[in-house]
Specification:
The protein contains 9 helices and 7 strands. By secondary structure, it is of the alpha/beta class. The chain has 2 domains: about 120 residues, no CATH class; about 120 residues, Rossmann fold. The strands form 2 sheets. The chain has a 5-stranded mixed sheet, sandwiched between helices. The protein is globular, with a radius of gyration of 21 Å.
């Protein structure tokens, strides 16, 4: 399809993608590229790091000194694998002043629905804009949740811990470093029930931590999450899969239930307990 055969939405989307690519390739220096990689991908090129394709085959190994082109290749690689969340990348550039939130292309795709782009009915235009604005605000509010999940999935590697309390402390310390401007609290009391949520970020993003010893504990966690969700709708289940307990299938089953029944995402990490 040629340029003139594209919808307005597709044209703005393509222009925005070109703008983002241009900013990354032409404006960001090495420290800025490194920070982007850490925040959006969860890692960055370093000596000995090997990139692998979708089939698991080695495609490139980085060597010192790490150059600017290495960072660009690293970003391109994860874009090709479709492992970079475009929304996170876009928000990162906006939040760090590399892209103007009033950019014509960004403003257009933030306030228009691709499916309705060809609908020129002026009578419905105001209603559509209102709905698009609501959707845009919802997407913005989900950005922090997406970022927390990505940080935990890509950047947090649990040490051997004695119990859930120690794991909570490690998570709180990690998240405070990952989000230095955020307020990260541990064991915050709930208003409705005599209990507390394990970790709370900026008073609204909650994380409940569990090192399950049995299927029963995973089942009970579902009721716990449902109850906590009434006060903190934005909640994540963080589960340390103690490899000594052989609960892989049970954890997979219940995390899928948390998502399908409650709409709650889970982050699962393999680890061990000590003591």
């Amino acid at each position: 399809m040629g340029w003139f055969g594209k919808s307005k939405y597709e044209k703005h989307e393509e222009e925005l993608a070109n703008t983002i690519s241009s900013i990354i390739k032409e404006e960001l220096d090495i420290p800025q590229l490194k920070q982007l990689c850490k925040n959006v991908i969860g890692s960055f090129p370093k000596d000995g790091l090997v990139l692998r394709d979708k089939d698991g085959d080695d495609v490139h190994e980085f060597e010192e000194p790490i150059t600017r082109n290495d960072f660009l290749e690293f970003i391109d690689h994860y874009q090709d694998l479709e492992e970079i969340q475009e929304k996170l990348l876009l928000k990162y550039l906006i939040n760090n002043g590399f892209l103007d939130e009033d950019d014509e292309d960004y403003e257009y795709i933030s306030t228009h629905d691709e499916e309705d782009d060809e609908d020129d009915d002026e009578e419905d235009e105001d209603d559509e804009e209102d709905e698009d604005e609501k959707e845009s605000k919802t997407n913005d509010s989900d950005y922090m949740m997406d970022s927390i999940i990505l940080k935990l999935e890509k950047g947090f590697e649990p040490e051997k811990v004695y119990d859930e309390k120690e794991l909570q402390n490690l998570l709180r310390s990690f998240l405070q470093q990952a989000f230095p401007k955020a307020k990260v609290e541990r064991e915050v009391s709930l208003k409705q029930v005599r209990d507390s949520v394990d970790i709370l970020i900026d008073g609204k993003y909650a994380i409940e931590v569990k090192i399950p010893n049995s299927r029963t504990e995973l089942r009970n966690l579902s009721a716990q999450l449902e109850e906590y969700q009434e006060e903190f709708p934005k909640i994540i289940a963080f589960i340390l899969n103690n490899e000594e307990k052989d609960l892989d299938d049970d954890i997979e089953y219940y995390t899928e239930r948390y998502k399908s029944k409650l709409g709650i995402d889970s982050v699962v990490k393999i680890g061990k307990k000590r003591g």
